[in-house]
Amino acid sequence: MLPHSTICYYPPQFILRNPVVSGVKKAFNNGFEVAVIAYTIKNHQELASQLGEESWKFHKALKRHFRSVIEKEIDKEDMIVLHDYYSDSLSLFMRIDHNRYCISEIDVKMKKILREAESRIFQEYPTVQPIFDTGFIFIDKSVDSVHGAVLKAHQQAFAMAEKRIQTEFNEMVYEMKRIIAQQNIKLLAQPIIDVATKEIRAWEMLTRGPEGTALESPLQLFSVARQTNTLYDLEMIVLRKTLDQITSTGCRDDIFINFTPITLGNSRFVRDLKNMMQSYDTIQPNQITLEITERDSIEGIENFIYNIKVLRGMGIKIAVDDTGAGYASLNTISEIMPDVIKIDRSVIENIDKNSVKESMLKGLLLVAREAGSTVIAEGIENEHEASVLSRNKVELAQGYFYARPGLLKTV
Fold this sequence. Notes:
This protein is α/β, with parallel strands linked by helices and 411 residues long. It folds into two domains: 4-164, Reverse transcriptase/Diguanylate cyclase domain (Alpha-Beta Plaits), CATH 3.30.70.270; 173-397, TIM Barrel (Alpha-Beta Barrel). The chain has helices spanning 19-29, 44-51, 55-73, 103-124, 146-162, 168-182, 218-227, 231-249, 261-264, 269-277, 304-314, 327-336, 345-348, 355-371, 383-391; strands at 33-41, 79-83, 89-96, 132-138, 186-194, 200-208, 254-259, 288-292, 317-323, 340-343, 374-377, 396-397. Strand 8 (288-292), helix 11 and strand 9 (317-323) form a beta-alpha-beta unit. The termini are far apart. Residues 169-411 form the EAL domain. This is EAL domain/GGDEF domain protein. It holds the Pfam family EAL.
C-alpha cells in the first residue's frame, strides 16, 4: 500500500457514496454536532518495512481492535462510522450530544480509546509498536454543502493529529493567533433568573468566535484553541472583555465567566487575574463567579486547588457546571465545596415526565445543601420543567424558557 504522504490529502471521493454524509446530515437535522477524530500511525513506513507482506493483516487487526474499543466506549447511536481511508490512519465520525459531551470529554475519550486499542494491538502483535498521533475537529454546520464540509473537516482533523509543517494545522494556529491578537470574539449574556420572582439575579457570559466563520461556534473555537495551545490566551481575553462590558454597562448583578480546569490550574492565572482586575477598580471581586466548565477531572492539575483557595480568599465565587452529567463534576464538588452548583440540562430535560430525574434533582439539592452551595438549574425550556423546579424550591434557573442569550444590560 502507498504511504499516507504519497496520497492526496483529501479522502477519496467514495466518501460521498458511503454512510458518512447521510449520517452527518441526519445528526445536523436532529440538532447535534459531528466530530471527526483522526488516528494516524506516525511510524507507518517503518512498520511496513518490518511487517512486509503482512502489513495488510496488521491494518485489518488494527481497525478491528479500534472498532471493538469504540463500540464499548461510545453509545451506538453516537458512532456514525469508522473508516480507514489510508493504510496508516483511521477516521471516526462521531455524533456529539451537548447534554453528554463537551470538548475536554471528547479529548479524554479519544485518548482512552487509543490507550485500550494500543493494549489490544500489543497483545496480538507484541513485537510491533505503532506510534499514534490523534486530533479532532467539528464539521462546520454553516456551509451549504455537507459533502464539502465533511471533506474539509477530515483534512483538518488529520492536520490536528499530525501537526505537520505547511498544512492546515499551521493555518489554524495562525487563525487562532490572529483572533487572539485582535481579540476578535463576541460575548453574549444569558440571564440567570429567580424562579419565584422571575427577576434577573445574575448573567452567564457566552463566547462566540468571528462572525460568519467556522470558528464562530464556541465548540469549534475552543476545540481548536485547546489543540493549538492557545486556550489560556483565549480564556483570558474572555475575562478582559467581560470586565469591559461590566464597566461599560454599569451592571451590578453577579457575572458568571466560564473557565476550563486547565486554565484555572495554570500557575500564571491568579497573578494575571489580579493584574487585570487592578484596571477595573469599580468591579468588586464578589461580583465575579468563575464557572468551572467541562467534565475534566481536576486530578493531576497541580495548581488547581491552590488557585481556587486564593481566588476565594479574594472574594471571587466558584461554580461547578454540568452537575449530574458525570462523576467528574461530583468529585469536584467534594474537593472544593463550591459556592454555586449548576445542575446539568441532562437532569432537567423532561423532568416533569420522569420521576427518576426528579429524584436525582432532590438528591443533588441535598448535596448542595450539605456543601453550602446555591443551586442553579440549567437548560429550562418549558413551563412544565419550570414547575418541577418551583415545587422542589430550586432558587435559580436559566434557559430559553426564561430568556435567550443577548446583550449584557443593567435592569
